[in-house]
Amino acid sequence: MKTIQLTTAQAIVRYLGVQYSERDQKSQRLFAGCFGILGHGNIAGMGQALDQEKTLTYYQSRNEQSMVHAAAAYAKVSNRLSTMACTSSIGPGATNMITAAAAATINRLPVLLLPGDLFAKRQVAPVLQQLESSYSQDISVNDCFKPISAYWDRINRPEQLLTALPEAMRVLTCPIQTGAVTISLPQDVQIEAFEFPLSFFEETQWTISRSRPDKSLLAKAIAAIKQSEKPLLILGGGAHYSEALEVIRVLVDQTGIPVAETFAGKGGLPYNHESNLGALGVTGTPGANLIAQEADLIIGVGTRYSDFTTSSKSLFQNEKVRFININVAPFDAAKHHGLMLAGDAKVTVEELLTGLSDFKVSPTYSSKVKSLCKVWDKKVSEVYNYRHHPQMSQGEIIGAVNDLASDDAIMVAAAGSLPGDLHKLWRTKNSKGFHLEYGYSCMGYEIAGGLGAKMACPEREVFVLVGDASYLMLAQEIVTSVQEGLKLIIILIDNNGYKSIGSLSRSIGSNGFGTRFLFRDSKSGQVEGDLTSEASYLPVNLAENARSLGAHVIECTNYDSLTKGIKEAQAHPKTTVIYTTCDRYHSVEGYGWWDVPIAQVSTSKEVNEAREANKPQQANQRFYY
């Protein structure tokens, strides 16, 4: 057996550089590169290896959390067929990745994390940034990754890579199990050498198979659909990842079954398709939610039925409602006691098509769906063209971006009030045009996610919509976008605080407490000053902050200057931040309900009234069995 002497880190980099994923006879590199921030826990190991081996492009990041967000966004745009590795030093460098790792696993997106770790040989313990334990010497902060990783390992000897790395690749390319994969690398082990078999570094294809559901269950599903009078198809993220969108459209056109979209599923059909009711659930459209309430059969394709999709289990009100769940993961296919079509969405829908060649919903039902779609499209136009206040509404801002964005543009957003408005209002022009992180609703994802999306599709416009609070959490990857020449157009909306939670606070009777960015009031002692006084507002200049990070900045004060600014940004060669303010109290009407616990006792009249008003909706919550 021929061997080659390499350090642990060199072997990792060389191995990752020859891994490929393959589906439908199409192959691509599994790793497009490696993000990193180098410190004493990885510079002599992974840093030296990346410099020497040259098989992975190294991307310098500014924050460990944001580089994992970027890697997850890259994987999402790539339909989970390609991703990035992320290397960090030990201690805070490693734990900074935990939040984004949780987001990746929750959203079922593959990312490879290579955090530095303490010394395996132990005689120098405690090293800088080591967590000591009185009950075990075999523990470090990297153990915190265990519950949020789809696969976790620690390499204590170089030869352990021979079994650990293939297992990590298996999980990363498994559509059922994928998520964050963590391989902890003690800093002394990173630099230790071993005679690795040369065959270990041969190109490897990881085939992502298309599993098919049980034939008898498929027959039952076809029969159930034929017997239904008001079926509704819920389109989730799994439909995108399996590349099932074309066959789903054929199914919808053939049968007339209407479609409603989750956050991850939005864009599966064009916004103006006559059967596309749009957003579903808490942030849903009135038409989608009405049809869902009346539906006697729900066909879930690639959805995990989050509480936002089901309006906290209060949405589906037909006493006869049943569920057919098409999902590659049995865990999700079993939800709501549904008929489990555990298999790949594309091939499963293809098989449904064959069995439903003679099925079509009634003309009355189809006409109702089309009418509801037209009513909502008219409402969106009204929101886009709202011009009745000195400050812009958030709907107007969304409309300006949507109207001027190119047809193949990607819009990226995450937490706050923007996701709900975008879910309802964004007119999707292409299947990747709507990119929202809402499985974890992670503030700070936006700009890092935009960077990852742009890396996956450098030829496309990428718009990032972000509020001031999320911007303040994690804006540093503006620097990386400038460094790499990856142009983003960032719409930075200054709400003077937490707009979304301010609205939620008011809805539960708490009057927006603690959600505005104000000086502490000297009389009351509360962090709520006089809203009529400019002196109460914090003197923070986010536009100047963006300039300091290297972005071109355009400041806008009204709709006309915003549209002019977007056009200027499109023509500018580098990352541009369009800064504007927004009316924090003007919101798009909501049509769904979300179960947010309200204090059972309170001295506040408003809290008590909100609690009582919530009870009728709670009474609508159901178990499905």
Describe, in plain words, how this protein is organized in 3D:
With 625 residues, the chain is an alpha/beta fold. The chain folds into three domains: 3-207, Rossmann fold; 215-376, Rossmann fold (3-Layer(aba) Sandwich), CATH 3.40.50; 385-496 and 537-581, 3-Layer(aba) Sandwich (Rossmann fold), CATH 3.40.50. Helix content is 37%, strand content 18%. It contains 24 helices and 23 strands. Strands 5-4-6-7-9-8 form a six-stranded parallel beta sheet, with helices on both faces.
Strand order of the largest sheet: 5-4-6-7-9-8
Which structural class matches the secondary elements? Answer: alpha/beta
What general form does the structure show? globular
Distance between the termini: 58 Å
CATH architecture of the largest domain: 3-Layer(aba) Sandwich
Descriptors for this entry?
625 residues, 24 helices, 23 strands, Rossmann fold, six-stranded parallel β-sheet, alpha/beta
Q: Summed up, what is this model?
A:
With 625 residues, this protein is an alpha/beta fold. The chain folds into three domains: 205 residues, Thiamin diphosphate (ThDP)-binding fold, Pyr/PP domains (Rossmann fold); 162 residues, 3-Layer(aba) Sandwich (Rossmann fold), CATH 3.40.50; 157 residues, Thiamin diphosphate (ThDP)-binding fold, Pyr/PP domains (Rossmann fold). The chain is built from 24 helices and 23 strands.
What topology emerges from the helices and strands here?
Blueprint: E1 3-7, H1 8-16, E2 19-23, E3 26-29, E4 31-36, H2 43-53, E5 58-60, H3 64-77, E6 83-88, H4 92-95, H5 98-106, E7 111-117, E8 151-154, H6 161-172, E9 180-186, H7 187-190, E10 193-197, E11 204-207, H8 215-227, E12 231-235, H9 237-241, H10 245-255, E13 259-261, E14 276-279, H11 286-294, E15 297-301, H12 307-310, E16 322-327, H13 330-333, E17 339-342, H14 345-355, H15 363-384, H16 394-404, E18 410-413, H17 418-425, E19 434-436, H18 445-456, E20 462-467, H19 468-473, H20 477-484, E21 489-494, H21 499-507, H22 542-548, E22 552-555, H23 559-571, E23 576-581, H24 605-618
Parallel strand pairs: 2-11, 4-5, 4-6, 6-7, 7-9, 8-9, 12-13, 12-15, 13-14, 15-16, 16-17, 18-19, 18-20, 20-21, 21-23, 22-23
Antiparallel strand pairs: 1-10, 2-3
